[in-house]
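[Meeting: bench + compute handoff]

Bench side (C.D.) handed over the final construct sequence. Compute side (W.E.) agreed to return the predicted structure before the next meeting so the bench team could plan truncations. Sequence as handed over:
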Amino acid sequence: MSISAARRPEDPMAASKDFAARPLHTAAAAAVLLATLAAPPPVEAATALQEILISGGTVVTSEGRFDADVRVRDGTIVEIGAGLAAGAGAREIDATGLLVMPGGVDPHVHLGGRTRDDYRTGSQAALAGGITTISNFAFPAEGRTLAQAIEREAALIREQAIADVILHAGINDPAAQEGQVTTLAAETGQTSTKIFMVRTVFDAEVPDYMATMDAAGRAGMLSMVHCEDGPILARAVAQLTAAGRTSLEYFPDSRPVVGEVVATQRAVAMAEATGAPVYAVHVSSAGALRVLQDARERGLSVFVETRPIYLHFTRERFEGPDRGLYVGQPPLREQADQDALWAGIASGSVHVLATDHVAYRRDEKLDPSQTISRHRAGLSNLQVVRPMLYSEGVIQGRISEERFVAVTSTNAAKLFGLYPRKGAIAVGSDADIVLWDPDETRTIRDEDMFSGTGFSVYSGWEVTGWPVMTLRRGEVVYGNGEILAGPGTGELLRRGRWRAP
C-alpha cells in the first residue's frame, strides 16, 4: 500500500499524551560518549558477514554466567567455548573484564506521531543503551485493517530503523477487528495486540474486546492490556476539577491506584473467561501486582510488565516545580509500591521491564498550561533503562545479573515470539550482543542522549555498569559513544507464538 506523508493515526490516549499538534522533530545526535577514561581508538564497524570472535569475556544469560569465547559468523552465534581460535580474516574483540550479554528487547515503545523520536533516533537511543530490538504500535486509521496499519509502519521501518523492530496491532474497533486478528500472524508475522481499558467506550465494547482477545489467544497471540478503569478515573478528575485542583501537582490523585486495581481485576477475569494470555503493561502499584500474582497462582497465563520510572521515582516528584517531567500513565506511586515492584523483579513475579518510551522535549514536558486532564504523558528511557537497572538493581544487591538479563531481554523475547532467535547467547541465535563494563561509573548527561528529546530525566545520576559495544545480528552498531550503522539496516521481525518465560 502507498504511504502518505500525513500524520499516522495514533493510539486512543493520544489526546492526553500531547494536546498540541507539533511537527515531528528529529534532533541530531549529541556529543560522543566517552567509553573509557583514556581516549579509545575508533571502533571499526563490522558487517554481519564478517566472522567475529569475542574472547575473554564472561557470558551472562538468564540462566547463569560462565567464562567463554563467542564466535559469530554471518550474523549468527556459531560457537561458544573456552580458548577458541580466531579464523583467517576474523575480527577479534577482546572482552576481558566485560560481560557478554544478549541485546535488550523492549516490547513497549512509542515512536512517531507527535513525539520527538522516529525509528532512527529511537534506534540510536536503544543501541547506545544495549537494546537491539525495539517495538511500536500500529493503530489502523478509520476504514483500514490491522494488516494495513502494520504495513504502514513497515514502510517506515525499512526506511528509518537501525535496531530490529516488532509491532503490536492496536485494537481500536474490536467488532471489526476480531476476524482480522485470526489471520494477522500469517499475513504480517506480528503476534501481539494492544487493548486500552481506559478508553471511554471500553465498557460498551467489552463483549467485542473479549471476542478479539479470544481470537488472538487461539491464534497464538499475546494481548497487551493497559489496565486503568475509565469511569473511576473520570470521577477522580471531576472531583478534583470541582475543587479547583487541576494543576499537575494533583496528577497522581487523578489516576488513583483503585482505578488500576479494578481494571487489572477485570483483565484477569477476561483472561480467565477466554483462556487467552494477557500481558499487563506498566504495572505501577503493589495492589495491581497482587491481583496478577494471585491469578498466576491459580494457573492463569497472565504476565507482568513494569517500567523504570516506578522503580526510581515516587509521587513526591509532583511536589516540585519540574513535576511535568514525571507525568506518565499510570502515575508515580508510593514508596511501598516501588518496594513491591523491586521485590517482584527479584522474585520473578515481574517478568519484563519495558520503557513505555515516549519522547518529548523538556519545554514540552514543562508546558505550564498542562492540567490533570490535558498533558503530555511519557518519558524518554531507551538509552538509560539498562544502565539504571544494573546500577540500582545489580550493584545495589537488589537483583542478580541473571534477573537483569531476564527482565530486559530473555523474558520479552519469549513472550513476544522471538526466542531463541533473540534474548539468548546460544548457538543458532542472532548475534545480538552487548559488551557491558560492570565497573564503569558514569554520570548521565543530557548532552549524551541520542533521543530527539535532548535530555534525560535521570540527568545527574551516577551509575555503575555501562554498555561499551553493541552488536545487532553480528554487526557492530554502537561503540565508543558512536552509532556505526545507518537507517534502513534494522528489520521488522517475523515472530512465532508467545511462550511463557
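W.E. noted at the follow-up: Residues 14-34+103-424+440-463 form a domain with the TIM Barrel fold (CATH 3.20.20.140). C.D. will use this when planning the next construct.
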